[in-house]
C-alpha cells in the first residue's frame, strides 16, 4: 500500500514563497499522475496542479504563473513551488497520486496525503 507524506507548509506573508514536498512510500507497480489539491475553510477541495509521469502539467487558473509543480519520477516525489502568495491561497494542501498496483490483477487507486496547512497573512 502506498502512503503519501507532505511537508513544507507554514505561515508566510502575502507576496512570499513556500515549497511543498510530497514523498511516496510503499509497494506499487508505479504512480501515474501526481498532483496537489487544496481545501480552503468553508470551500470544496479544488485542484491546484497536476503532473503526469511524462511531465505534462496542468494548473488552476488562479495559480498559473505563480506556482510550479515538479516531480522526480524515479523517487515518486512531487513538489509545489509557490510564489507571490496571496491570502486566498490559504488552505490545507493535499498531495495526490494515481497508484497502480497488483492484487489479483492490475488495479488503480487514488492515494492521498494527510494534508499540510498553508496560511498566507495579509
Approximate strand percentage: over 45%
Number of strands: 11
Distance between the termini: 40 Å
Shape: elongated
Q: Roughly how many Å is the radius of gyration?
A: 14 Å
- Rounded average pLDDT: 95
Poorly predicted ranges:
none
- Class based on secondary structure composition and strand pairing: mainly beta
**Helical segment tally?**
0
Largest sheet: 7 strands, mixed
Instruction: Report helical residue fraction.
Output: under 10%
Order of helices and strands: EEEEEEEEEEE
What can you tell me about this protein's structure?
- This protein has 122 residues and is mainly β.
- The protein is 0% helix and 60% strand.
- The protein has strands spanning 3-7, 10-13, 18-25, 30-39, 46-51, 57-59, 67-72, 77-82, 91-102, 106-112, 116-121.
- Strands 2, 4, 5, 6, 9, 10 and 11 form a 7-stranded mixed sheet that branches.
- A hairpin with a 5-residue loop joins strand 5 and strand 6.
- The mean pLDDT is 95.
Summarize the structure.
The protein is mostly beta strands.
Structural descriptors:
mainly beta; seven-stranded mixed β-sheet; 0% helix; 122 residues
Amino acid at each position: 500500500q502506498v502512503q503519501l507524506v507532505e511537508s513544507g507548509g507554514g505561515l508566510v506573508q502575502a507576496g512570499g514563497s513556500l515549497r511543498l514536498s510530497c514523498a511516496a512510500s510503499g509497494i506499487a507497480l508505479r504512480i501515474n499522475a501526481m498532483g496537489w489539491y487544496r481545501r480552503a475553510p468553508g470551500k470544496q477541495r479544488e485542484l491546484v496542479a497536476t503532473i503526469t509521469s511524462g511531465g505534462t502539467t496542468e494548473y488552476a487558473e488562479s495559480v498559473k504563473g505563480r506556482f510550479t509543480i515538479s516531480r522526480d519520477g524515479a523517487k515518486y516525489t512531487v513538489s509545489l513551488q509557490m510564489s507571490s502568495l496571496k491570502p486566498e491561497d490559504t488552505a490545507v494542501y493535499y498531495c495526490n497520486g494515481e497508484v497502480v498496483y497488483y492484487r489479483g490483477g492490475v488495479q488503480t487507486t487514488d492515494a492521498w496525503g494527510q494534508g499540510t496547512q498553508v496560511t498566507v497573512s495579509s
